[in-house]
Amino acid sequence: MCGIAGYFDHRSSSPDGTAHLMAETLLHRGPDGGSSEEFQLGQVKIGLGHRRLSIIDLSDFGKQPMNWQHYWITFNGEIYNYKEIRSELEKNDHSFSGNSDTEVILHAFAEWGPSCLDRFRGMFAIVIVDTEKQRVFAARDRAGVKPLFIYQKDGLFLYGSELKSFHAHPHFEKELDPSAVAAFMQFGNVPTPHCIFKYCRKLRQGHYLTYDLVSKETEETQYWNVYDAYNRPKLDLSEKELTDKTEKILTESFNYRMVADVPVGVFLSGGYDSVSVTSLLQKDRTEKLKTFTISVPDIGLNEAPFAKEIADRLGTDHTEMACTQKE
Questions:
Q1: What does DSSP say about strands 290-295 and 265-267: parallel, antiparallel, or unpaired?
Q2: Are the CB atoms for 74 and 84 separated by under 8 Å?
Q3: 164 to each of 3, 23, 150, 151, 159, how far by Cα in Å?
Q4: pLDDT digits (tens, 9 = 90+) for 134-183
């Protein structure tokens, strides 16, 4: 994962270096590097920060915040099918400097606008600034795997992967929302889109947001809903056809998540879910898949024997680690 954070300040009162400080609070999300940019756009001071965990394109061509033409982007996540999207864009006369999925997102947004989200398969929190139209575009993946928090008050718009980044901005008002506290006491969490602080919210999964830097108007749009998928007509297929189709879909999805320029491993518990993932990935591979099991025996959570049995059967390169409850 990476970490993103930034601000749009209509009073231009944010001290220089604030974007860097906001991003540095997310060091644990991105230990491989970090950068920030701050600039003035009309009456608005803009700060963009990023902490990087390098997975695709380890070179500086994958560095963020990234600029292309009149667009800036900070992005957390991974677009698994970015190579297919890139090929489509190249047919439309787009050219690329590097091999990152971040650069593909920028070009896809320039080509298709918000509808580019329909092409993305992955997990993501994206913030794009269009300096020509003076608009901000922010989006979150369909399932909400990647978080995106927003704060708006008195001409200040903050965004970040975690709330702690807001504390690094000197004008963030740390005022608890009593209704959110009540929800936490009742449910053990603060339900989306609410947040523990006033003037804060979480961008909902399957939604994108546009923010006009001139009018300060914000509009939120749902681009995907899980119920639409549930309500599709049922397939009229035999059990064999359904089994084959399910295996094909799962295999394709698992292989997409192996796309990386760094080694990838699988957490193996010995249960149905992780065994299915490991089996389908190892089936057509000659090299041994790296699998990992972490157990906590002193509190009765020791799945290591089951995982080892599966690892031996599938022939993976397996690693076990036992932790104490204290660890």
A1: parallel
A2: no
A3: 11, 10, 12, 12, 11
A4: 999 999 999 999 999 999 999 999 999 999 999 999 999 999 999 999 99
Give the three-state DSSP class for 199: coil
C-alpha–C-alpha distance, residues 321 and 268, integer Å: 12
For residue 64, give the nearest of 82, 80, 47, 51 by alpha carbon.
Answer: 51
CB 99 within 8 A of CB 57: yes
Question: Contact at 8 Å (CB) between 156 and 9?
Answer: yes
Neighbours of 123 (CB within 10 A): 19
Burial of 174 (0-12, 13-18, 19+ CB in 10 A): exposed
Do 192 and 143 meet the contact criterion of CB atoms below 8 Å apart? no
Determine what percent of the chain is predicted with pLDDT higher than 90: 87
pLDDT at 68 over 80: yes
174-217 pLDDT tens trace: 999 999 999 999 999 999 999 999 999 999 999 999 999 999 99
Question: What is the distance between the alpha carbons of residues 198 and 138, in angstroms, rounded to a whole number?
Answer: 20
Residue 297: Cβ within 10 Å count? 13
- For residue 41, is pLDDT > 90? yes
| DSSP secondary structure letter of residue 233 | P
- Amino acid identity of residue 197, one-letter, is F
> Model confidence over 112-122: pLDDT tens digits?
999 999 999 99
Distances (CA, A) of 222 to 109, 112, 141, 209: 17, 17, 11, 9
pLDDT at 57 over 80: no
Q: How far is Cα 209 from Cα 150, in angstroms, rounded to an integer?
A: 10
